[in-house]
Design brief:
Elements lengths: L4 H5 L8 E5 L11 H9 L4 E8 L5 E3 L29 H4 L31 H8 L8 E6 L9 H17 L6 E5 L2 H10 L5 E5 L27 H7 L4 E4 L6 H9 L3 E4 L5 H10 L3 E4 L2 H10 L7 H8 L4
Parallel strand pairs: 1-2, 1-9, 2-4, 4-5, 5-6, 6-7, 7-8, 8-9
Antiparallel strand pairs: 2-3
């Protein structure tokens, strides 16, 4: 059976490891922003990971936390917000009042990304804005790791969860981009809903062991993820049993044995979020399929230094011939 093109886009090989721009290129440009996605595409990283939440008026928007993120959201007066209303309780128009172009360098979150550009006039994008971007002829090599964010407040609301998936699928279908995306989540029940409503689309299973600390300033997925306590080496089998095409584990959870098992099961292994040089080199040594990173250029350099490609020949030609 022919593999889904979005699955093949993330598949590595003997001398190929794919580079996935995490929230665009978060280390250098505002996260989950169109300018960040454009940068990653132009920098030869056509695989994009990002997060989708529904606004109060049912618009799929690209942002990570379920609440406005104080270190990255500025109010109309130019100041970083001090209260964090829920995205699901705000309309698309209300979200557009906030600027996400800079990060508060005094915050613990901001201190993680000292090289990130500080811009003005950047707004939370809609999913359809990114889908229109990748539908442009110059971006024909772009594929999406589309994380549908699962809100713990709606964990038992099956109607809402179905509506969330249906709305995302409607946008993909309307823009003709269903073959350019993986449906990606920590919430395995939500991925089951994805398979029910779109059996033709591949699913990607995010995991993080409960023993590992959450990232500073970011929503934790542990409340909506399966409990993997004592199951670190069994996770690839669990993903395969649930019909996953990709396994996307946290960088500190990856071992030679669970990567080998995942490959035996036919899973693609795409590891998040790999930023440190030592971790990049460890992933290269493990020959994983794809590295999800806030610094695409940093990963490209380590791969190039070791004679490893991240794009196929056709991909390189497509990037090289894009107009300046």
């Amino acid at each position: 059976m022919t593999q889904h093109p979005a699955v093949e886009a993330f598949r590595g090989g003997p001398d190929v490891i794919r580079v996935v721009g995490h929230r665009g290129a978060r280390g250098l440009l505002p996260e989950n922003s169109i300018i960040g996605f454009e940068f990653a595409l132009k920098a030869g990283a056509p695989l994009l990971e990002f997060d989708v939440i529904l606004s109060a008026d049912g618009v799929p928007v690209i942002t990570h936390n379920h609440r406005l993120h104080a270190p990255t959201f500025r109010a109309p007066d130019g100041r970083y917000i001090t209260t964090e209303p829920k995205v699901a309780e705000m309309t698309w128009a209300e979200l557009q009042r906030y600027d996400i172009g800079s990060t508060d360098g005094t915050s613990a979150y901001g201190q993680r990304f000292p090289e990130q550009a500080q811009l003005d006039g950047i707004r939370v994008p809609r999913l359809r804005d990114l889908l229109r971007l990748i539908a442009q002829p110059d971006n024909s090599q772009a594929y999406l790791m589309l994380e549908i964010k699962s809100d713990p407040d709606f964990a038992k609301d099956q109607a809402y969860r179905a509506h969330l998936v249906e709305t995302v699928l409607a946008e993909l279908r309307e823009t003709g981009t269903t073959r350019r995306a993986l449906l990606h989540s920590f919430d395995w029940g939500l991925l089951a809903e994805c398979r029910r409503l779109a059996p033709e689309m591949p699913t990607s299973f995010l995991t993080q062991l409960p023993s590992n600390a959450d990232d500073v300033g970011e929503d934790s997925a542990k409340a909506i993820s399966p409990d993997f306590t004592g199951k670190a080496e069994q996770i690839p089998e669990m993903v395969a049993q649930h019909g996953g095409a990709l396994w996307c584990p946290y960088v500190d959870d990856v071992t030679p044995s669970n990567v080998a098992l995942a490959k035996e099961l036919g899973l693609i292994v795409a590891v998040w979020t790999v930023n440190d040089i030592a971790d990049i080199d460890r992933m290269i040594a493990l020959q994983i399929d794809a590295i999800v990173t806030d610094y695409p250029g940093r990963v490209q350099r380590r791969l190039a230094d070791q004679g490893i490609r991240w794009l196929g020949f056709d991909d390189h030609m497509a990037v090289a011939t894009q107009p300046a």
